[in-house]
């Protein structure tokens, strides 16, 4: 299938824009790949330290020594970087994965070691609390922890065990610093379906109105989040898994298999088999070469086609930069104009990810996009069969993995073919105007609310908005501006707790929108939200000029975000500074002091909010 001209054009301009940085990155990757293996290159004391705790059989294979006699050939060594903890439902299953991987490696004459662990925090736990202000920057902490884990430099390949919001981007950024290593990502899958997401949202709105109390709300939340695995809505965690499939970094079809399914353990073993196959000279495919401009475009297309998390307009910019590739929101916007929306998964519909998987899942979406000429098929993946292997679904037969064709969608209310999409354009939209640049997850918003024009009410925090809602001050048409929420101000927290009160106002018949330099993530809902406004208010961005009563127009059709004032009046408007009480509170307590340097050095949201460039 011939590639769509827009996909060709966007890829070409990314390639040209990235020419110097990508070249420098690949030079570094190639130089590292040409060295002797670590166990041969390092001094004897270094090697002895690295393998001191290994079982004797593994030690002999790893060092190519048996009772001080040389044996050949030296076995490959897999470094495992694990995001396991048993606080996070999505990462709890990872506890026993290293044992499966080590066992499988031994069967293949290789060895594996847990190179290190990385922190993994849950935005669902920290939502609306000071801890949420560590969330975005935890991505870069995870990237650094991944680099520390692999810095022992004795590994021939790597497996990345992680699933959720900042964890996968952080692991990927860290892995790309060791781009000479073949690398496969190993997920754990979603939890089984509990209370439907729509019902959960209704209870949240009732709680916002005071119609139900804490016992009823906790019961509903506990029925929704009830076991091991990722949350079942299509937020950042599950968007991560869709993008990794589209990039060819998983064992094909691994993303949305539940942790308790028998095939899951076999898929984890297959990850070890897959990465060891990549170590062989004839198949050698390091991650730094695999993640190229075409691979990044494929991820962007998959995000748009599924209405995925807006967080990835930040995270995948950072991921691309880690590989020497420069992308921006104009690239997402151009692709969004031609990529059809193929899925309806909550919050863009009523289905959860288990229903998405049952209807055809990532494989169906990737096949449709390839057949429509909207994804690059001529890319490297962790499998020798290329990206077409990722259009099939795995199952286990007699203890062996088999992959089968997915066929037509099993539920066209959830997944559709490219020939009859839910929408002709993607789920994300770039907004720009005299308030700066922003994005909106338009696929989640009913068409009647794609354009909102109303007077502004300005807030310095989400607590201020909640107080105004409770006092009845927002019972009118209103655009709520919540500023001082960007990376430099307070670490750019997600503002999910604003959704229930704003949804209540919308349900009362008012025209309501949110404009913020903070984040809303993949869980943003039916209220139009212009998020990631850049430059942020704390950096002197135009959001700092807005005053109560200014009429703001948010137009998701034309892609504009505008204060309706004359150019002269807007230019003369003074720029507010962050209130002293907010500035004093930001960065104090809950470990936030340790992230002060990250806040000072963070780039704009459109530049990935990177703290390491």
Tell me what the structure shows.
This protein is of the alpha/beta class. The protein folds into two domains: 331 residues, Response regulator (Rossmann fold, 3-Layer(aba) Sandwich), CATH 3.40.50.2300; 179 residues, Glucose Oxidase, domain 1. It contains 25 helices and 16 strands. An eight-stranded mixed beta sheet has the order 9-10-14-13-12-11-15-16. Helix 12 crosses helix 15. The model has no long low-confidence stretch (mean pLDDT 93).
Question: Could you give me the name of the CATH homologous superfamily of the largest domain?
Answer: Response regulator
Instruction: Report the radius of gyration as a whole number of Å.
Output: 24 Å
Number of helical segments? 25
- What's the pLDDT, averaged over the residues? 93
Alpha-beta content class:
alpha/beta
State the gist of this model.
The chain is an alpha/beta fold and 613 residues long. Helices cover 38% and strands 13% of the residues.
């Amino acid at each position: 299938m011939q590639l769509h001209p827009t996909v060709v054009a966007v890829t070409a301009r990314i390639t040209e824009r990235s020419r110097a940085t990508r070249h420098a990155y690949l030079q570094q990757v190639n130089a590292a790949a040409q060295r002797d293996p670590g166990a041969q290159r390092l001094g004897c004391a270094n090697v002895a330290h690295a393998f001191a705790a290994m079982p004797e059989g593994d030690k002999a294979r790893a060092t190519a020594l048996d009772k001080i006699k040389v044996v050949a050939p030296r076995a490959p060594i897999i470094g495992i970087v694990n995001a396991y903890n048993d606080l996070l439902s999505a990462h709890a299953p990872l506890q026993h994965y290293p044992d499966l991987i080590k066992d499988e490696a031994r069967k293949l004459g290789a060895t594996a070691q847990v190179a290190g662990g990385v922190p993994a925090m849950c935005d669902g736990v920290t939502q609306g609390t000071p801890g949420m202000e560590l969330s975005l920057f935890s991505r870069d902490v995870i990237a650094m922890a991944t680099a520390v884990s692999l810095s022992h430099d004795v590994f021939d390949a790597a497996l990345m065990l992680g699933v959720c919001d900042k964890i996968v981007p952080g692991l990927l950024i860290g892995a790309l610093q060791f781009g000479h290593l073949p690398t496969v990502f190993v997920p754990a899958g979603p939890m089984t379906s509990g209370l439907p997401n729509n019902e959960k949202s209704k209870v949240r709105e009732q709680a916002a109105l005071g119609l139900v109390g804490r016992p009823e709300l906790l019961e509903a939340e506990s029925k929704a989040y009830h076991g091991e695995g990722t949350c079942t809505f299509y937020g950042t965690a599950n968007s991560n898994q869709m993008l990794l499939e589209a990039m060819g970094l998983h064992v094909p079809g691994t993303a949305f298999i539940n942790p308790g399914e028998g095939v899951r353990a076999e898929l984890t073993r297959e990850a070890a088999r897959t990465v060891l196959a990549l170590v062989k000279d004839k198949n050698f495919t390091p991650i730094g070469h695999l993640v190229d401009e075409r691979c990044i475009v494929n991820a962007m297309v998959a995000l748009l086609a599924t209405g995925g998390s807006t967080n990835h307009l930040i995270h995948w910019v950072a991921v691309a930069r880690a590989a020497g590739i420069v992308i921006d929101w104009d690239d997402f916007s151009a692709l969004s104009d031609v990529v059809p929306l193929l899925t309806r998964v909550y919050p863009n519909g009523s289905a959860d990810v288990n229903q998405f998987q049952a209807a055809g899942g990532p494989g169906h979406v990737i096949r449709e996009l390839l057949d429509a000429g909207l994804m690059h098929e001529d890319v490297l993946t962790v499998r020798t069969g290329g990206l077409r292997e990722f259009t099939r679904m795995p199952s286990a037969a007699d203890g062996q993995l088999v992959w089968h064709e997915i066929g037509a969608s099993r539920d066209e209310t959830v997944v559709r073919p490219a020939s009859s999409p839910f929408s002709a354009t993607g789920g994300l939209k770039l907004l720009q105007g005299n308030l700066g640049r922003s994005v909106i997850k338009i696929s989640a918003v009913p068409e009647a609310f794609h354009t909102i024009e109303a007077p502004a009410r300005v807030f310095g925090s989400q607590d201020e908005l909640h107080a105004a809602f409770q006092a009845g001050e927002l019972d009118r048409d209103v655009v709520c501006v919540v500023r001082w929420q960007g990376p430099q101000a307070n670490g750019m927290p997600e503002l999910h707790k604003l959704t229930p009160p704003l949804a209540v106002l919308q349900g009362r018949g008012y025209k309501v929108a949110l404009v913020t330099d903070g984040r809303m993530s993949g869980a943003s809902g039916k209220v139009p939200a212009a998020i990631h406004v850049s430059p942020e208010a704390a950096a002197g961005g135009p959001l700092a000029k807005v005053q109560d009563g200014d009429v703001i127009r948010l137009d998701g059709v034309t892609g504009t975000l505008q204060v309706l004032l004359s150019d002269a009046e807007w230019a003369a408007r003074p720029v507010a500074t962050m209130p002293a009480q907010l500035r004093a509170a930001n960065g104090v307590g809950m470990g936030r002091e340790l992230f002060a340097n990250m806040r000072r050095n963070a780039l704009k949201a459109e530049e990935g909010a990177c703290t390491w460039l």
